[in-house]
Amino acid sequence: MSPFRSHMKAALAAARAAAARGEVPVGAVVVSPGGTVIAAAGNRTRELNDPTAHAEILALRAACAAAGSERLPGHDLYVTLEPCPMCASAISQARIARLYYGAADPKSGGVAHGPRIFQHPQSHHVPEVYDGIDAAEAEALLKAFFAARRG
Ligand SMILES: [Zn+2]
């Protein structure tokens, strides 16, 4: 096992790229058991006219395609914001080993808030969850984005 190294900076870069495209700035990366980033994505719901095109879903799809598998055992997912219930469920379905996320999302999150997907008995696979990783930076990106849209 390789020594721990956070890949949240790569997820934050994907979030900033999403903001530059006019999308809500959330970014996600999937890291292989060997410690390589195999997929990175930011939100593309507007660009793709797709309410499911959250950063985590796009990153999982790309990672599964790269791995040639519908499951990603031993892989880690980093995302700048607490996953919503849809993404939390997809993370469970993909058998992600560890989830690292940044900002908490009391309004739309589904991990520590709302339905708390991983605590639900129907969640057949539960990743290890680490929250608050670079949370201030992720929150600042979101605040700046929504402030600019209101202004
Ligand atoms: Zn989501």
Automatic annotation (TrEMBL):
<dbReference type="GO" id="GO:0008270">
    <property type="term" value="F:zinc ion binding"/>
</dbReference>
<feature type="domain" description="CMP/dCMP-type deaminase">
    <location>
        <begin position="2"/>
        <end position="112"/>
    </location>
</feature>
<keyword id="KW-0862">Zinc</keyword>
<dbReference type="Pfam" id="PF00383">
    <property type="entry name" value="dCMP_cyt_deam_1"/>
</dbReference>
<feature type="active site" description="Proton donor">
    <location>
        <position position="56"/>
    </location>
</feature>
<dbReference type="InterPro" id="IPR016193">
    <property type="entry name" value="Cytidine_deaminase-like"/>
</dbReference>
<protein>
    <recommendedName>
        <fullName>tRNA-specific adenosine deaminase</fullName>
        <ecNumber>3.5.4.33</ecNumber>
    </recommendedName>
</protein>
<dbReference type="GO" id="GO:0052717">
    <property type="term" value="F:tRNA-specific adenosine-34 deaminase activity"/>
</dbReference>
<dbReference type="GO" id="GO:0002100">
    <property type="term" value="P:tRNA wobble adenosine to inosine editing"/>
</dbReference>
<dbReference type="InterPro" id="IPR002125">
    <property type="entry name" value="CMP_dCMP_dom"/>
</dbReference>
<dbReference type="InterPro" id="IPR028883">
    <property type="entry name" value="tRNA_aden_deaminase"/>
</dbReference>
<keyword id="KW-0819">tRNA processing</keyword>
<comment type="similarity">
    <text>Belongs to the cytidine and deoxycytidylate deaminase family. ADAT2 subfamily.</text>
</comment>
<keyword id="KW-0378">Hydrolase</keyword>
<comment type="function">
    <text>Catalyzes the deamination of adenosine to inosine at the wobble position 34 of tRNA(Arg2).</text>
</comment>
<feature type="binding site">
    <location>
        <position position="84"/>
    </location>
    <ligand>
        <name>Zn(2+)</name>
    </ligand>
</feature>
<dbReference type="InterPro" id="IPR016192">
    <property type="entry name" value="APOBEC/CMP_deaminase_Zn-bd"/>
</dbReference>
<keyword id="KW-0479">Metal-binding</keyword>
<comment type="subunit">
    <text>Homodimer.</text>
</comment>
<feature type="binding site">
    <location>
        <position position="54"/>
    </location>
    <ligand>
        <name>Zn(2+)</name>
    </ligand>
</feature>
<feature type="binding site">
    <location>
        <position position="87"/>
    </location>
    <ligand>
        <name>Zn(2+)</name>
    </ligand>
</feature>
